[in-house]
Amino acid sequence: MNYFPWLTIIVVLPISAGSLIFFLPHRGNKLIRWYTICICVLELLLTTYTFCYHFQLDDPLIQLAENYKWIHFFDFYWRLGIDGLSVGPILLTGFITTLATLAAWPVTRDSRLFHFLMLAMYSGQIGSFSSRDLLLFFIMWELELIPVYLLLSMWGGKKRLYSATKFILYTAGGSIFLLIGVFGIGLYGSNEPTLNFETLANQSYPFALEIIFYIGFLIAFAVKLPIIPLHTWLPDTHGEAHYSTCMLLAGILLKMGAYGLVRINMELLPHAHSLFSPWLIIVGTIQIIYAASTSLGQRNLKKRIAYSSVSHMGFIIIGIGSITDTGLNGAILQIISHGFIGAALFFLAGTSYDRIRLAHLDEMGGMAIPIPKIFTMFSILSMASLALPGMSGFVAELIVFFGIITSQKIFLMPKILITFVMAIGMILTPIYSLSMSRQMFYGYKLFNTKNFYFFDSGPRELFVSISIFLPVIGIGIYPDFVLSLSDDKVEAILSNYFYR
């Protein structure tokens, strides 16, 4: 056991420090912004320090474990711990949240509440990734919903109430399945009810019951990930949310669904997972094609990027379904890679909206000349999104491809078919990505408008874009940054359960 509560401090710091925002003196928004950014940076440095000096990479077991009895009445524990699977998403959360608070600089209305909600989300996300107790995982999962709902309904676009209601209905609906699954698994114990991940990982269930649990959890995570047909809340939410909220949604929120799928469905319910994995691969393949073709028909810039996110999530689903070391490592790399790329594209879409106040692609055109810096960053990150070699997206998708090709569980003909369809999806990605750049930046449309003058990207916006771009290139050139974190854990998951 680790005697110093590193993880508790990391989980509790953002929300507890965030609640002090309401006691800050009324001196305009500057103080609130700087205070929030300082908390985010402090939290990121603390997390990095803890992982550098107190975490052993080559140990697939749970580290930094903490275990405190919380509610005596029904044996509820505050259990935290991390392994190679949680480190990447936690660091991604810290990085993207810090940049999202910097991106939220222009928000002036009710900025106390706005920044508090961002910090509350921060705690919920890190709590989800480091929980070792199923009920605690559920509580942290729920801590996410209300801040997103409020950020949407108060700081969104014209249809914000519609999209916020749709978001809460879908995600709260998914959470009901998660709660039923948590209690089902916890109460079905050979000796006594338990919600401890370690105990549950070594427990076996009747096959029919395991399938029921699996379906319940799958629905909950399919809403969050999202998996078609439960994805329709995502484009509406992204279309209306402020771009700093979009960064958190695309960068972290969707990844919680993928993390849950690996952490609970794969680790705790392996037999059901090997039964469902061919269906996951089929759904993932359909999702890549469907979302890429739908993206091409979107007039709204943010909705087009949102559908591209849904398409990229297909690779994660296929990697998780492949049940191979390579495929699962590729899925984890895609989780991290898309976290950066998705957040960057929404940030750049938001900054260009701040300039021209136009949301639809067919009204734009000719923006490359007045705002060359935004044009450059947008072009580079669009290339990263379409998996250009040397960028993180290319490596992640390539590894998922290898995972499918080397899988022992799939016959040759289905392999060829799946690989062929995935390849078509990868061809569709450049089509919608490049046509988006063409409609925004080329042509002459904006030259005809009155008062035609924009400021280009300022130092703050350039800093955010470049900060996200560097890890995208870094992971693309040297993917072992991420793979070395999860490699041993992936091997442990697969050897313990699937090769038994």
Automatic annotation (TrEMBL):
GO cellular component terms listed in the entry, alphabetical order = chloroplast thylakoid membrane
Q: Does the keyword Transmembrane apply?
A: yes
Q: Keyword set for this entry?
A: Chloroplast, Membrane, NAD, NADP, Plastid, Plastoquinone, Quinone, Thylakoid, Translocase, Transmembrane, Transmembrane helix
Q: Which reaction does it catalyse?
A: a plastoquinone + NADPH + (n+1) H(+)(in) = a plastoquinol + NADP(+) + n H(+)(out); a plastoquinone + NADH + (n+1) H(+)(in) = a plastoquinol + NAD(+) + n H(+)(out)
Top EC class per UniProt?
A: translocase
In short, the EC number is: 7.1.1.-
Q: Which biological process annotations from GO are given for this protein?
A: ATP synthesis coupled electron transport; electron transport coupled proton transport
One GO MF annotation is: ubiquinone binding
Q: List the InterPro entries hit by this protein, alphabetically.
A: NADH_Q_OxRdtase_chain4 (IPR022997), NADH_Q_OxRdtase_chainM/4 (IPR010227), NADH_UbQ_OxRdtase (IPR003918), ND/Mrp_TM (IPR001750)
Give membrane topology per the record.
Multi-pass membrane protein
Top-level lineage group: Eukaryota
State which residue ranges cross the membrane. Answer: 6-24, 31-56, 76-105, 112-129, 135-155, 167-191, 211-234, 246-264, 276-293, 305-324, 330-353, 374-404, 416-435, 462-479
Boundaries of every NADH:quinone oxidoreductase/Mrp antiporter transmembrane domain copy: 131-415
* Compartments, as annotated in UniProt: Plastid, Chloroplast thylakoid membrane
Cited NCBIfam families: NDH_I_M (TIGR01972)
The similarity annotation says: Belongs to the complex I subunit 4 family.
Q: What is the name listed in the Swiss-Prot or TrEMBL entry for this protein?
A: NAD(P)H-quinone oxidoreductase chain 4, chloroplastic
Gene field: ndhD
